[in-house]
Amino acid sequence: QVQLVESGGGLVQAGGSLRLSCAASGRTTDNYPVGWFRQAPGKEREFVAVTVSSGGTTDYRDSVKGRFTISRDNAKSTVYLQMNSLKPEDTAVYYCAAREGYLGYYSGYFRPSQYPYWGQGTQVTVSS
């Protein structure tokens, strides 16, 4: 079992920055895929970013490329999402998710259904 706790959300003006944290406990996630997803009101949960393994592949949805950066600190069992140049359309509840075992692009690391472990979410609100 893996427990995930997100933090770092808040209210920020357009153009500002936030850093989200996803702290893992229980079984280590050092070499597991960890993804960030978000869900806005009335919309489906969507993929934001993933780190496939420690030192391995990262990927982002097109609309956040160049603005968001995902990273890991294995010593702290924490995955971060640095979000810069925030836009009002980035407003959502952000969730981190993890799974055990390999998960690649063709096995769907961008699909929420591939992740059994989820945090409770943290609200990000970007004002215009």
Order of helices and strands: EEEEEEEEEEE
- Rough outline: globular
**What does the oligomeric state look like here?**
single chain
Q: How many whole angstroms does the radius of gyration measure? A: 13 Å
Low-pLDDT stretches: none
Helicity range of the residues? under 10%
Query: What's the total number of strands?
Result: 11
Helix/strand structural class: mainly beta
Query: What is the makeup of the main sheet?
Result: 7 strands, mixed
> On the 0-100 scale, what is the average pLDDT?
94
Strand composition percent: over 45%
Tally of contiguous helical segments = 0
How far apart, in Å, are the first and last alpha carbons? 40 Å
